[in-house]
Each structure stands twice: as C-alpha cells, then as structure tokens.
C-alpha cells in the first residue's frame, strides 16, 4: 500500500510505556492530526515515525518498505519541529535551499526551487531577506518551505503553530491545509489544539495513555465519539448518567422520550450543548432550573441545574431561549444527536 502503516508500535522508557501497541494506516496524500492531552505519547509516536526514536516493538512501513530501523536522513522526510529553528544568520533563500545544498543540488536548480517554494508560501521575492527581519508567521512559513524543499514522501510537524498568537494560528491552519492539498503530500501533525485538528485533518487520531482511543474524520469524532474520553476531550459535551429501570431509559433519573435502552444498565449519555433545547416544563423532558446565562454575543450559554447536575445549552442569538435565571425549564434532548457511551 502507498502511504504509512504503523503495526503494533510500542515504545517503553524503562518500565514506562509511552506508546502502547499503536496500529494506524495513513493512506498516501492524507492529512492526519494526532491529538491528545500532554503526556499521551503523541510526540514519541511522531519521533518514531521520524526515526528520532526506535520502537521497542512493532513496525513502521512507508510505501511498502519497513523503515523501522532506517536512519532519519534516509527516510526522505520533511520535518517542522518546534525545536528545529531557522538559521538566524542566513537569508530566507539560504534557509530554504539548505537541505538542497547539503545534498549537492546544483546552484541554479536550488534557486529555481527556492522561487517555486516562496511563491507556494506566498512570500515571492523574499529570498534575500534576513530571516530575523520576518514576522512569526512568515518565519513559520519559511520553516515549512525548507522542510518541503527536498519534496519529501512524508511531512511531519510537531506543534508547528503553537508559538503564534491565536488569530495568526487560525489563518496558518487554513494555509497549511491548502498547501497540503495542493501538494497532495502525506502529512502528520501533532497538536494539543482540537480546533486546529478539526480545521486541518482528514483523520483525527485521539490518543490517551499511549493508546489510540479513536481515529476518524473530524466530524465523526465530534458526532460519534467512541468513548467518554473522546466525547469530553473534543469540544464540550454534557455527560449525563443514563440508567435502565424496568425497561425504561432514565436520564438523570428522569424518563426521556426517544432514547433507546442500551445493553448495559448504567451508561452515560453524551449530548453536545448545541443539541440541548430549552422549553416550558413538560412530560418526556427533563426539568431543571436556570442557574446562569453567559451571553458571548455570537452564542448564548444557558446553565441549567437538573437534580444537582449542571447542563449547558448553547444557542445563537436568533434562537435565544426566552428564559431567565431562577426559572423552571424543560430540557429537550434530541435523541438523534445524543450518543450512549459505556460508563
Ligand atoms: P506533550 O503534549 O506534553 O508534548 P506528548 O503527548 O507529546 O505530550 P510525549 O512527549 O510523547 O507526550 O511523552 C509521553 C510520555 O513519555 C510522557 O509521560 C513522557 O514523560 C515520557 N517520555 C517521553 N520521552 C521520554 C524519555 N526520553 N525518557 C523517559 N520518558 C519519556
């Protein structure tokens, strides 16, 4: 198969297992974001793909070739790691040409490639500028161009945008995704920012405790989280206790219409805040009391206490619920969007 396969990849540091039996297939040309909390093993996994760490067991296969023990410089990779800074004393062009120069590429070919890459990253004519005169975003684009200079088989990035301020980071996410689509290059990015992952990825790989908890498209991860960890980690959600008593499904101890009884008797129901609607109290809906309203302009969050559990409902100003703090309300959960998860 063309692309990258991880087969049972495990990394132990002494008795500690940082990456635990990871299996993943990344088809050629796809964009994968590895996402997870600090310490979940995502950087260690990327370092093994890069050849900077060797797996304790398992295999890494690129385009059908087992590269588990192939040294980094023979893997044909482009890398942008937080720690791999640009050479401050070189110009933009010299930085981008550096990997070509050390491979002995002819001068004219280097210059042509630099111009090509500069136009790709929207910095045409910047070749002779010193890199220390560039903005943070421009520098990041130059680092990306330098990594792409050798036309790598695989493009690996570790938290590439984390040093940028929020606005620039969002713009760069879109830019990086467009660039990847234009080049059709297989790309793996490590991030702890779920918005970043949702913006860029074909496949989001959610990790925790060294294991992959779910690998799927961004919308599937959001809409059909595999477990409580994923549901809670991606976006915000309301995790409500769900029980079955004499065939009836109870949410927070109250009957709710339309939610089928699961196999187990005790589970959780994950309901996104935008899938909770408030109404007058009534049969078939939870009843609660409004405790707080946060109006953020673009969205309105209404906090509702249901038997000691606080739910959050989000709406747009157009569909703003006509409620006030202290009011009794009915809470409507759309059974189509709620997901039953093992407790
Ligand atoms: P972060 O987002 O904080 O970078 P991460 O998900 O990338 O976290 P890793 O850097 O892969 O996490 O680390 C996973 C675990 O392995 C951590 O508990 C870390 O302390 C441990 N670890 C990583 N490298 C080593 C090492 N060289 N020796 C011992 N333990 C290590």
Automatic annotation (TrEMBL):
Molecular function GO labels: ABC-type transporter activity; ATP binding; ATP hydrolysis activity
InterPro entries associated with the record: AAA+_ATPase (IPR003593), ABC_SmlMolc_Importer (IPR050093), ABC_transporter-like_ATP-bd (IPR003439), ABC_transporter-like_CS (IPR017871), Mo/tungstate-bd_C_term_dom (IPR008995), P-loop_NTPase (IPR027417), Transp-assoc_OB_typ2 (IPR013611)
Entry superkingdom: Bacteria
Record family assignment: Belongs to the ABC transporter superfamily.
SMART domains: AAA (SM00382)
Key words of the record: ATP-binding, Nucleotide-binding, Transport
Listed PANTHER family: SPERMIDINE/PUTRESCINE IMPORT ATP-BINDING PROTEIN POTA, SPERMIDINE_PUTRESCINE IMPORT ATP-BINDING PROTEIN POTA
Domain ABC transporter: 4-234
Intracellular or extracellular location(s): Cell inner membrane
The protein's name: ABC transporter ATP-binding protein
Entry membrane topology: Peripheral membrane protein
Any one of the GO CC terms: ATP-binding cassette (ABC) transporter complex
């Amino acid at each position: 198969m063309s692309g990258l396969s991880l087969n049972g990849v495990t990394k132990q540091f002494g008795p500690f297992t940082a990456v635990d039996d990871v299996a993943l297939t990344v088809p050629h040309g796809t964009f994968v974001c590895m996402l997870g909390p600090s310490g979940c093993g995502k950087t260690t996994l990327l370092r093994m793909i890069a050849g900077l760490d060797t797996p304790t067991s398992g295999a890494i296969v690129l385009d059908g070739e087992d590269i588990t023990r192939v040294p980094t410089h023979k893997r044909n990779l482009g890398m942008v790691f937080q720690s791999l800074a640009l050479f401050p004393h070189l110009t933009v062009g010299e930085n981008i040409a550096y990997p070509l120069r050390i491979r002995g590429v002819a001068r004219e070919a280097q210059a042509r490639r630099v111009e090509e890459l500069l136009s790709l990253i929207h910095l045409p004519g910047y070749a002779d500028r010193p890199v220390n005169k560039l903005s943070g975003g421009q520098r990041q684009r130059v680092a990306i161009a330098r990594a792409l200079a050798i036309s790598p088989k695989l493009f690996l990035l570790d938290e590439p945008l984390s040093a940028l301020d929020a606005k620039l980071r969002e713009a760069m996410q879109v830019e990086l995704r467009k660039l990847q689509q234009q080049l059709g290059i297989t790309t793996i990015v490590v991030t702890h920012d779920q918005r970043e992952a949702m913006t860029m990825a074909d496949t989001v790989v959610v990790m925790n405790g060294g294991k992959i908890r779910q690998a799927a498209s961004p919308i599937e991860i959001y809409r059909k989280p595999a477990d409580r960890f994923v549901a809670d980690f991606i976006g915000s959600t309301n995790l409500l206790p769900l029980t079955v008593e004499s065939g009836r499904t109870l949410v927070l101890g109250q009957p709710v219409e339309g939610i089928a009884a699961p196999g187990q008797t005790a589970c959780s129901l994950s309901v996104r805040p935008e899938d909770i609607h408030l109404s007058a109290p009534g049969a078939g809906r939870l009843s609660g009391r409004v405790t707080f309203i946060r109006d953020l302009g673009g969205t309105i969050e209404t906090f509702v206490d249901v038997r000691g559990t606080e739910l959050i409902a989000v709406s747009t100003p157009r569909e703003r619920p006509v409620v006030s703090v202290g009011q009794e309300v009915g809470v409507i959960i759309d059974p189509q969007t709620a997901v039953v998860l093992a407790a």
